[in-house]
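INPUT
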Amino acid sequence: MKTILHIDINSYFATMLQQENPHLRGKPVGVTKSEGRNCLIAVSKEAKKYGVKTGCRLKDALPLCPDIICLPAQFDRYLDATHRLKKVFHDISPDVRIYSLDEAFVDISSCLRYLYSDPVDVAQKVQANIKKELGEWVTCNVGISYNHLLCKMASNSAPKGEIMTVTPENKDLLLASVGFEDVCGIGFRLGKKLAQMGVTNPYQIRFYSEQDLLPVFGPFWAKELLRIGYGEDSHNLTLLNRELPHMKSVGRSITGYRLHDSEEEIKAVLLNLMEEVTHKVRRMNLSGRYVSIYLNGHDQHWHAHRTLQYYVRHTKELFDILYNELYLNWKRRFKVIKFGVRLGMLAPISEIPRPIFPSWHKQEKLSEALDAITEKYGLFMVRPASIPKENIIKPEVTGFLGDRQYYGL
Amino acid sequence: MYQTINEPIEIAGVYSKSTFTPKKFRWRHKEFLIKTITWRSDVKDGGIRKRLYSLMSANELYRVEFNRENETWSLLEMWIE
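OUTPUT
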């Protein structure tokens, strides 16, 4: 039987800001994506005591906690802290899976025989080493179990800064006592559907057969829910053990500060996002043939995609398809606040026959030159004239760390 | 709130065991003794490597940047209650 640790830093973004600034310690802190944003992407444990939740809007948080201090996130510094955490985990075991910016699974099964006698000692060592590496204010929960689902569930439901062990003997107790918000893979809507059936914890799923679940949840979720009900790894967690040779897709989205109606602004934002996507794809020596775009308005959205017969990796190629073909052929009926582009079905450039067209080779040479400048001076040091300098959208890491391969994590 | 400063500073410190530890800095002709380093991060701005320090001096917090390419120090921000 395996022994896996799930380590989750408590309120990571807010805690790191409190670690940095002792004046913030013990005070309710909310973190926004950047200055002037309204959505709290993280809140400190002190703010949580007032009922402020991650994801809530500042205007909703203020009546609950008028003293909340709002600060912009420091994504570059969080990413560096995660690199440091990875070193801490690798000191414990070679089998480390970084799950998000502040979470990791560490499989210590192979080390238990010779290096460690008790997994709880290992968990305490991890907690101490994290404090040593990131600072004394930083605490983490550690869940210990024999599979990913249960150890994540344990760390989610343990009190802040504590260790919880789940064994085959006590797993049913945990499954019967946690809500679906602590279960990896079950989101708000699925939880709501289950609640309508009277199921409020994973254990209760067992009271239903696959045949009962099938009409409500479909064939995939009927099986998946039963696995969760019996404390077995869900499908997305089993994928953790799969080694991905390269990223499958690269996307980038941004929510603006206001609704955009100007075609010039929309074009500039989309081009900006495409520049970032293609740069990342080229930097990983990849090329893709699935392209997609989506735009959200106040309460409307539009999405278009195309699967190509050939691979693209230059901004011009992507822009021609996404903007000139798909976007311009659509009659925009709403003001846009959220923009997203994606390049998928990626494959290593070494495995793809290179086009014979001279124009492609010209673009490739141009991109190589631009990439060399970018590597030295940063992205958008050289940029299309249609992207105004003051409105540049720079790359940023996300909490769930979808591009962990790009960042070497 | 953090007040943006973005001014060059001079810094003195100790280099020991391959690590530089800032001990004091001079800003606007005034010396500030560093009590603790609360956060240290290595970040990259393109190919330009930077080291960011959050420093406590006389109960005030300062965000300081060391540009590792041109070896210059700047005071980026300070915390104002």
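end of record. The mean pLDDT of chain A is 91.
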